[in-house]
């Protein structure tokens, strides 16, 4: 499975959970794929915009911070209503209506229902332990479900697991690394070129040898 297909497959469950939390209980696969594609493009837009703001604001350490993310959300139109920077300077105060509306949605019943469907908060009537108030996300639960031993080793080195330890790649023929193999190939090519030039300079006729002696 290619990387884009894998990312789209991982994004499908959250979109389905959002649809369920909104009140939809069924949809066509084509509609779901369209929503997944729109969500992926939106996330990519936010990420690229935040990266651009980070490079412009602090190029020495271009890691997006909270301010860069806020600007990216503002560029994407997620913070509404929101005055422009010049309008804020003219009025002499910062417009926080967009941020307050976003925080209200994030902590409100709509997002809480999404979290409940996703398994992050308990449903009414569920008997749970105090340690498990914050449930695991769907991906972790799915990985444990399909792993009989519960080990993460089968996912090591993949996008689903931890980074695997780097091991040297031994080239067939005894070369310790690809770099050494490349140097050996260049050396062979240089040796063959010098040998061919030497052979071409050898006289092929007796008359040529006599002329060389003269």
Question: What would the average pLDDT be, to the nearest integer?
Answer: 76
Number of helices: 9
Tally of strands:
0
**Low-confidence parts, pLDDT < 50 over ≥5 residues?**
none
User: What is the share of helical residues?
Assistant: 55-70%
Characterize the largest beta sheet: strand count, sense, and whether it forms a barrel.
none
**What does the overall shape look like?**
extended
Alpha-beta classification: mainly alpha
Give the H and E element order.
HHHHHHHHH
Beta-strand percent range: under 5%
The structural domain count equals 1
Radius of gyration: 31 Å
Q: Ends: how far apart?
A: 73 Å
GO molecular function: protein heterodimerization activity
Keywords: Nucleus, Transcription, Transcription regulation
Domain Bromodomain associated: 4-82
Subcellular location: Nucleus
